[in-house]
Structure formats: structure tokens, C-alpha cells
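note to self — DONT lose this again. spent like an hour looking for the file last time. sequence + predicted structure for the chain T wanted, 193 res
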Amino acid sequence: MTDNLLVPIDLYLQSGIHIGSKFKTGFMEPYIYKVRPDGLCVLNISKIDEKLRAAAKLLANYEPEKILVVCRRDNGHKAIKAFAKATGAKAIAGRYLPGTMTNPSFSNFMEPDIVVVSDPWLDRQVIKDAVQSNVPVIALCDTNNTTENVDLIIPCNNKGNKSLSLVFYILAREYLRNKGMIQKTADIDMKEF
């Protein structure tokens, strides 16, 4: 299975995408490969890759301007801005203001067709508004996350710079490939993420 991954396994390992937290929820149990002796949970890289593929395919059903990516965590700001720049999606780096998707009189009101969040806990207000607006949610989930109201889970380390950069790089590249905006063998500059 490792020879058919979206990126080489070494890249996944170097980014720490598979390193979870010491806490695990029942929601994330199916994605955990093992628990290390120091108590850290290790996510299954094959499942991470599988869910990244599924997320990119799902996102390809939407026009870029109808995709909203939100990340409250500072570590992901550069990555989601690069994703938005590469794909044409909208990004909110930092605090999401309640009502952005539900209050038409709000100055920054937007009506996305799908939302991607970097952490279901920190970005819970986005998820709440998405549910109220009947908008599907893709969420990057670490081993300690709960996943109520999440339509597609991407299991990963959603706290590390390198991990978040790799996730959004892969999503951007695969989105562009699936939309036919770049050739299937073409790549985008990973340094931007």
C-alpha cells in the first residue's frame, strides 16, 4: 500500500502527520495504528492518505469560490492561505466570527457550499454555523478530537506546522488535479505551504 501513496512515506513521516496526542476519543479509535510506550497515539498513514484522497475528490465537486477553509490555530495560517491562493478558495486565518455564514446583514457574510476546518474543537463555531446552514464539513482531526457534525474526517496531527502544511499542500494539489486545472502528473510549489 505504501507505494501508492499521494506523497512518499518519508514525507509523511518527516512532517509528523501521524503523531497524535496522548489522549484518544472513541471517534478517532479506528484511525489509530498503535500507542507508543510514552503514551502518544500513532495514526495509520494508509488511512490518512485514504481520507486525503476522499477529501480532495469531495472538494473537486465544488467551485473554488464556494469552498471556505478556516484555521484558528496560528500554526496553520500560512498553510490555509497558500491553499486559498493555489485553489481560489476562501480562507479565514484566525478567529471566525459567529454569523459569518448565518447572518446576511453581517459585513463579511459568505455562503460557502463546503467548509474545511483545521480542528473541530478550536473551529467549533464554524461547524455550528455550517450545520445551521446545512453545509458539509471536512475536519482535520487529531486523536483527541470529537467528530460530531463532521461529514469527512481527515485523521492527522492538526497542531504541527509541518503536518498542517503537508495536509493543505496535498489537498490543494489533488483538488487542482481532480478539477483538471493541472495535469495529473503536474505539481505545485510545496515551499508556499
